[in-house]
Amino acid sequence: MDGVSERPEMFEGVDTVWQDGEFVDFEDATTHVLTHGLHYGTGVFEGVRCYDTANGPAIFRWEEHLQRLYDSAKVYDIEIPFEQAELSEATLELIRREELQSCYIRPIAYYGYGPLGLNPSKSPVETAIAVWPWGAYLGEEALEEGVDVAISSWRKHASSQIPTNAKTTGAYVNSVLANLEATGNGYTEAIVLNKEGNVAEGPGENIFLVRDGEIHTPGLAESILDGITRQSVIDLAEDLGYTVHEGATISRGELYTADELFFSGTAAEVTPIRSVDDNEIGAGTKGPVTDEIQTRFFDVLDEAPEQYDDWFTYV
């Protein structure tokens, strides 16, 4: 990299990355081309957000994200050479150094440069954390008007093939293919079915269906990632008085006849879905249940009320 001018726009102004125990210049945060994780997808990561709350900048559900990172690493026998408390403090200090009030956080651990071959046991584990400003993943307009999505021809792998409870780099090629197909055909995002043909999730989001005032979302047995924002939405919806069926089996056809649909995720937050395969969902606009949950979600992020105080880790 010759300089900041070559950076993607989203990384403009980012000065520092934490890498293997040190704060390094953005341009120096590099890895070898023969890194094991680059060739075989042997890495684990998280996507986390820090919000500018009424009480100051705070990371949302940080402890849960950090625990999932270490749980994912355990599945792939990746021994992260830092304690959780060390990664937590490094992340908080990185946000302070970058002077960010809100940001996206990407911790990653992967098998590094060592002998090539399927068995990574002789490769060192490398760890890094990056932070940068990032707005709405699917666009600010999408939060109000909703997105047009398509059912992907690519199926979500079963947990018996690749563990779906682990957030691993290599497994996301499945999501990449689904997203490329959808966006290449003029849609904003995809919905992926599992091997049984039931609804699993979006490439980077969980999905919720509203019917007759009740909320349904695919269960863990449907080969989904156990989304942390998904669980937050379930908690908020139940606190608002909604009945939530969180172990639902949803068919493709049920999507077309839903009253409302919406995505949830760290990146997507709470984003309405206005059409699936060109079939209008409900009135083709953000529905009342989605609107109430989305409003409550962002109110909690803005206000950090005492009721949800344990959801926030302050910078």
Defining key terms:
315 residues; alpha+beta; D-amino Acid Aminotransferase, Chain A, domain 1; D-amino Acid Aminotransferase, Chain A, domain 2; nine-stranded mixed β-sheet; 17 strands
CATH class of the largest domain: Alpha Beta
Mind telling me the C-alpha Rg? 20 Å
Level-2 CATH architecture of the largest domain: Alpha-Beta Barrel
Structural class category: alpha+beta
Q: List SSEs in N-to-C order.
A: EEHEEEHHEEHEHEEEEHEHEEEHE
- Structure annotation, total helices: 8
Cofactor: pyridoxal 5'-phosphate
Protein name: Branched-chain-amino-acid aminotransferase
Keywords: Amino-acid biosynthesis, Aminotransferase, Branched-chain amino acid biosynthesis, Pyridoxal phosphate, Transferase
Function: Acts on leucine, isoleucine and valine.
